[in-house]
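Hello forum,

I keep getting stuck at the same step: I have a sequence, I want structure tokens, and every attempt I make locally crashes halfway through. Rather than fight my setup again tonight, could one of you with a working pipeline run this one for me? It's a single chain of 395 residues.
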Amino acid sequence: MKYDSLMIHYGELTTKGNNRRSFIDMLTHNVRVALKAFPNVEVKSSRDHLYVLLGEEEPMPIISRLQEVPGIHEISLIAKVGREPEEIQKAALDLIQKEAGHTFKIDVRRVDKTYPLRSYDLTVQVADYILDHTALSVDVHTPDIEMRILLREDGVFLSSHRYPGLGGYPLGMNGKALMLLSGGIDSPVAAYYLLRRGIKIECIHFASPPYTQMAVIDKLVELLGELNEYQPAIRLHIVRFTEIQEAIYEKIPEPYCITIMRRMMLRIASRLAKKEGCLCLATGESIGQVASQTLESLVAINDVTNAPILRPLATADKVAIMDKAREIGTYDISIRPYEDCCTIFKPKKPKTKPKIEECVYYEARFDYEKMIEEALSCVETKMIVEGKEKEFPAK
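Reply #2:
Ran it on my machine without issues. Output:
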């Protein structure tokens, strides 16, 4: 007897009602895509679980890959056995004897209420059988080995190994967002949280050559390579922002420069999002972290767009954001010292409580609409696929 399959538990997805089937279908598709490197496995779906039949494949590489798929709550390594109590006893004994430890616990879950034995009765029978044939003892609180026996209509499944999934919803189930990606610590973490909620992303980056180095693009490709673990292909749109930024710092009082710059970015991002079929914008902003992220600043900046703006990190503190960045593998890339357009002309005393009417007044000093159209006409788009860059023609 050996574990020959994986059972994928849906978790939060189980709260869905009439559209549950569409969530399951999306997750099934995503799992099959994630496991394309394992051609010998077979994926089957049911209302309550997905099953991955391993064949001759080793389970751990497959489990590791599945742990990066949004929408999976837990993964169990399982063996399917017959319904007779004697067969369940023998299989449980065989599997437990392959585990290290001195104590065990049997946990029977009787989903199939037509099964003739109650959960308690089968628990006692299996535990007694193991006690009779091994030197193990029972510990129901902190056992070395916990054997779960799941009695379902489609079979009886034994498992003593469970692995956490990413949680959330299947990727693509909740539409697509355009993520403002700076190259710092926060925005890749915010993008990760979007992916975990089933939201696909495209990214937009504002470059200001020659003030910003083109090496920052290599940095972005590496960051998106880490996020490719959750979304295998991500489009990166690079907007030349130099002329707009120079006009801002020539025409606008220094305290308002950051606010006006962010307003211009949102104008551009909103139009690109509509063109690319993105339902909303997303940023890595955290309330109060810098001058442009006070509530007053966000109100003034948001004024230029009707597009919804998601801010997954709005209430997160910096330490928690940094910890998550380390966890998902983006931190060491993000801290490389390449400047972006938000830092090269950083004002000494930025306005923390800007007024919308003052923003409008200052913006009237230059023809920003023409500059925005020019910037949108020469957007460079790259596709980052599994950490590798593919180029697209300029639009």
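The two ends are 59 Å apart (CA to CA). If your local run keeps crashing, start a new thread with the error log.
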